[in-house]
Amino acid sequence: MPSLTQIPISPSLTFDALAAGDKGAPLVLLLHGFAESMQCWRPQITALADMGYRAVAPSQRGYSPLARPDPRDASHYHIDRLMDDAMTIVAASGSADQRFHLAGHDWGGSIAWALADRHAERIASLTILSRPHPNAFNRALQMADGEQAKRSRHHKAFLEPDAAEMVLADDCRWLRERWTAAGMPNAAMAAHLAVLGNRDAMEAALAWYRARGAIRTPLGPIRVPTLYIWGDADDTVGRAAAEGTADFIAAPYRFAALPGGGHFCADQMPDRVSELMLRHIGAHPA
User: Fold this and answer.
1) Domain definitions of the chain by residue range
2) Which of helix, strand or coil describes residue 281?
């Protein structure tokens, strides 16, 4: 079973994390996205540990109370800082000089794509849930049919000054309705709200969007063995962006489209996600 631990990486930053498995085992770092928490990876952490891996899922910058710089200065939440956090957590987890496996969902997927572009030599395998390669995403956003732009319109709404109030209003109604439509179990909703359902955490989480703005920086071709998991009922990512990701992978690649899968497949279909991840990671040892 995963245990809650704390990972200090500087005098001002200590991250909560879920972890399981022997500390000397090959590391799998799992990065959550929005709107969720490290709890989305609990089933995968257990499955990975049972198969001999060390699995660590941090509550990322702004989500961890002791790693929450002032969100009024969005530069604290720039993706470069989020990437640096991830690599420092890898080192603090005992893999400073070793290759490791990386997984990310949603915003965690954005970070993971960027890390694979920057640190390909360090990453043995890459698993992404929902978030397409940024180049494929940008291309789909610019398509004349406007389909992906419509799916992503909430990204611009998150840049508004009152975005936190909107998301938290009426007992987080916006989140609850979206989660329910995506097939998320009630227990998972409660676990995520315990982390994210307060003003301080929500402002920090939305600062990620404000630090990035509306632009997704293009990346080069990914040269890490990649598994991309997409639910065909994902309300935020359409088929053009998902299937187009293949154009930007220059390594062994598998695209797993899950029938009926929504945006939060790790919560909705944990066993299937674990099965796919274990097969992929096992095929590409660190």
Assistant:
1) 3-282
2) helix
Q: Can you give the pLDDT at residue 217?
A: 72
Query: If you write DSSP's letter for every residue of 36-83 in order, what string do you get?
Result: --GGGGHHHHHHHHHTT-EEEEE--TTTSTTS---TTSGGGG-HHHHH
Query: Which residue is listed with tokens 């992906």?
Result: 148
Q: How does DSSP assign 145-172, residue by residue?
A: T-HHHHHTHHHHHTTSTTHHHHHHHHHH
Q: Which CATH superfamily is domain 3-282 in?
A: Alpha/Beta hydrolase fold, catalytic domain (3.40.50.1820)
User: Is the per-residue pLDDT at 252 higher than 60?
Assistant: yes
pTM exceeds 0.85 for this model: yes
What pLDDT does 214 receive?
56
Backbone angles phi, psi at 160, to 5 degrees: -75, 150
Radius of gyration, alpha carbons of the chain: 17
Is 256 within 8 Å of 172 (Cβ atoms)? no
The pLDDT value given to residue 216: 65
Residue 213 has pLDDT above 80, yes or no: no
Q: Quick check: 162 and 170 in contact, CB under 8 A?
A: no
Average pLDDT, rounded, for the chain: 96
Torsion of CA 91, 97, 102, 106, to 10 degrees: 50
Strand-pair category, 54-58 with 123-129: unpaired
Task: Report d(CA 245, CA 131) in Å as an integer.
Answer: 9
- The model's confidence at residue 155, banded by pLDDT at 50, 70 and 90, is confident
In what order do the strands lie in the sheet containing 3-10?
Answer: 3-10, 13-20, 54-58, 27-31, 100-105, 123-129, 226-231, 253-258
The whole-number pLDDT of residue 259 equals 98
